[in-house]
Design goal:
Helix content: 25-40%
Largest sheet: 8 strands, mixed
Shape: elongated
Strand order of the largest sheet: 1-2-4-3-5-9-7-8
Number of helices: 13
Structural class: alpha/beta
CATH architecture of the largest domain: 3-Layer(aba) Sandwich
């Protein structure tokens, strides 16, 4: 018994060491293969079309699997000669592009790398990619397709051409492994903790009972291999997606149809707005998975290893103001204020600005913020409009802005200015001269402007979800 335990410990130690060494290799060479043509999340179908058409035909077999409802090509890309078939599909939701960027990094790796690992992957398996299943949604940077259908809820009715294409490819190939690649919102936590779920995994259930057959078990074991690698990069920030059975979803049904299916959801991490570091982690995770499939070392993991990955929670805000005493209805109310920020994109879906809103109020002691502020001991005042009009932002900046702020003025009238500039990161609120002014308040859905005072001295200002310390104002505008 002791000998068996020693062997088991040695096995897992060996897996750990090998996994870490290989992750380091993928990490060290990543900069060589990162696709430089994709630098932010709002790339278009035309951008990847050029990259796909440039793939060398002596390595890659590229075909148009079909077209979207608006006539954009949906590509199937094949590489490798091995018996194990692996299917990966990304951007089923048009505004979830992180893994798509990682796939093009992978294409460069598979094209240019000369390591034995790369050769073993291509000799033992055949990889099939659908890098952008929802090109219409991608061009509009929206979740749903041009029919306003969520493709991932169309696995049974198959009303969208994109859904039919994925089903036909899966049925024709009957792959052993499937990777369903997505993004999730930045407020998802790894468990009910302050750690964001930067990457989340799931071995989807294939029935309501959430039973474990051979295929789902293999998917679970392979996830453990990837989690082992990711803990080096984002310790504590790997989550497990809900395994509630969704009978309309592709992941659940593809698992049911006999493909060992793994869902990867890319969340968020601080200071990575365009998800470029998380893109790299997708790349490393997928290569780790391919190598593990080839070596079959994933088989050493147990369900208990998988269950150690915490379920996703939803307890995060961009900013959490704790212990804020707000005077309302002639009484003082003790609030925690949870603030989040929406991305408001331009008409071309190429750029965006942020607009804050109050997402939750009340007792939020079991919630967390990317940034937190304890308002204990502060007098909180609502916004105050300065009645002088300014021609432009430069004119406002040349005024005694610090003096005006210290008198409680937080909101200023300015002539026409693009909305993105009005919502820029500034320590005051801008109002267009001809627009109807309505002061903000602390209510769900509102974007409050608040100032925090101690002994009648202004200390901190909240504008559009950002906090500005008075002592640091010169750094912020």
């Amino acid at each position: 018994m002791i000998q068996q335990r020693i062997l088991s410990i040695s096995f897992f130690l060996l897996i750990h060491l090998l996994t870490m060494a290989q992750a380091n290799l993928f990490d060290e060479t990543y900069v060589q293969y990162r696709e430089k043509a994709l630098e932010n999340r709002r790339f278009k179908h035309a951008d990847i079309k050029k990259l796909i058409e440039a793939l060398p035909s002596n390595l890659y077999e590229v075909k148009i699997a079909g077209k979207s409802i608006q006539g954009r090509e949906i590509y199937q890309i094949k590489i490798g000669t091995g018996a194990i078939k692996v299917l990966l599909w990304s951007q089923m939701h048009g505004n979830e592009p992180t893994a798509t960027m990682a796939l093009f990094d992978l294409f460069n790796y598979l094209k240019n790398d000369r390591s034995s690992t790369r050769n073993q992957i291509l000799e033992s398996m055949t990889l099939y990619f659908i890098p952008m299943l929802n090109p219409d949604g991608a061009d509009a940077f929206q979740r749903r397709n041009a029919l306003d259908i969520d493709i991932n809820r169309d696995a049974i009715r198959l009303q969208s051409p994109e859904s039919k294409i994925l089903k036909e490819i899966r049925d024709e190939l009957d792959p052993e492994w499937g990777f369903n690649l997505h993004d999730q919102n930045r407020y998802t936590s790894a468990g009910k903790t302050e750690d964001m779920a930067s990457i989340s995994f799931l071995a989807p259930a294939f029935n309501e009972e959430k039973e474990w057959n051979k295929g789902r078990t293999k998917a679970m074991q392979l996830i453990c291999t990837m989690n082992e690698t990711l803990q080096k990069y984002i310790p504590g920030k790997v989550g497990r997606y809900s395994d509630e059975f969704e009978p309309r979803a592709f992941g659940d049904n593809i698992q049911k149809w006999g493909t060992n299916t793994i869902l990867i959801e890319t969340g968020s991490i601080l200071d990575d707005e365009e998800k470029q570091y998380l893109r790299k982690l997708n790349y490393i995770s997928l290569l780790t998975a391919f190598k593990s499939i080839h070596e079959e070392n994933y088989k050493g993991y147990e369900l208990s290893d998988y269950e150690k990955i915490p379920f996703n929670g939803g307890v995060l805000h961009d900013l959490l103001i704790r212990n804020a005493t707000v005077h309302l209805y002639d009484q003082d109310i003790l609030y925690d204020i949870g603030i989040r920020q929406d991305e408001i994109q331009d008409n071309a879906a190429k750029d965006f600005y942020l607009r804050a809103y109050v997402a939750d109020l009340g007792d939020l002691h079991n919630y967390f913020g990317y940034e937190e502020f304890d308002a204990t001991g502060y007098q909180i005042r609502f916004e105050k409009l300065y009645d002088k009009k300014f021609v432009n932002l430069d004119a406002l900046k040349k005024s005694d802005i610090k003096g005006l702020l210290s008198k409680g003025y937080t909101t200023f009238l300015i002539q026409s200015l693009p909305e993105a500039e009005i919502m820029a990161r500034l320590p005051f609120r801008l109002i267009k001269i001809n627009s109807t002014y309505k002061p903000s308040s602390v209510k769900i859905g509102q974007n409050p402007v608040l100032s925090f005072w101690q002994q009648n001295q202004l200390k901190t200002i909240l504008v559009n979800g950002y906090l500005f310390e008075v002592t640091d104002l010169d750094k912020n505008w």
